[in-house]
Amino acid sequence: MKKASWLLILSFLLTLVLVGCSSGNATQPSKDAAQTEPAKEIIVSAAASLKDSLTELQKDYAQKTPGVKLTFNFGASGTLQQQIEQGAPADLFLSAGKTQMDALDQKNLIVKDSKVDLVGNELVLVVGKDNSTVTSLEDLAKLSVVKISIGTPESVPAGKYAQEALTNLKLWDSLQPKFVLAKDVTQVLNYVETGNVDAGLVYQSDAQGSTKVKVATVVPASSHKAIVYPAAVISATKNKQIAEDFLKYLQSSDAQKVFVKYGFKTLAK
């Protein structure tokens, strides 16, 4: 075979080798690319009173499940309910009242089989650390100059429980002129801490987390419906399995111990 022919064949073979190497390199993902794969995110709309406990649980869950990012949207349960009804992004809803969860259930906005009662709570009357005047609910009616904060009953479950309790205890009508309504229990607590009001009705978990207030009295459990925090996965979620996994984690013994640490009550299964 002529020399020129050999050169053509060698040139052709060399071209094939170079193309093959180039193609092989292009299909190999780098280790850096694999390591920077973004975490799966779920948005959890949760009652304001759950903020401290969920913040701690968020850190624990990040260690257990590093591939999942938790984003929390805290607020009054009624406000969160309305946001979900209006199409706001949410994968999981943790409510401080059954009314809000039931409203979403009736509109088929939650995954029915996912709904669980997560934790319980108590309603308490709190006053400033140095307040020795108010020691009972009855004192609120006796004192002529006193301001009392409660959550707006229409949107804040704690406010609804307060209204129910005070009505059953025959105190609601006489106390109405003294009320300062708040957007959620966190704001009620803040009003008491700053001295803007003399007393407030909040959850035990809220009172326990503050160093500026003290519990004057526990509101009789018989005066209002049981305080239960229901939770459920949102129907519109695109991360159903991840949301279900996190909800399952919240029901675990380890997570429940954290809730108890922050003043919540476990519920009998």
* CA(first)-CA(last) distance: 89 Å
Task: Return the CATH architecture of the largest domain.
Answer: 3-Layer(aba) Sandwich
Shape: elongated
CATH class of the largest domain: Alpha Beta
- The amount of beta strand, in percent, is 15-25%
CATH H level of the largest domain: which superfamily? Periplasmic binding protein-like II
Radius of gyration: 28 Å
Give the count of structural domains: 2
**Which fold does the CATH topology of the largest domain refer to?**
D-Maltodextrin-Binding Protein, domain 2
Task: Write down the overall mean pLDDT.
Answer: 89
* Oligomer kind: single chain
Which strand order does the major sheet show?
2-1-3-10-4
Poorly predicted spans: 21-34
Helix content: 40-55%
- Tell me the total number of β-strands: 10
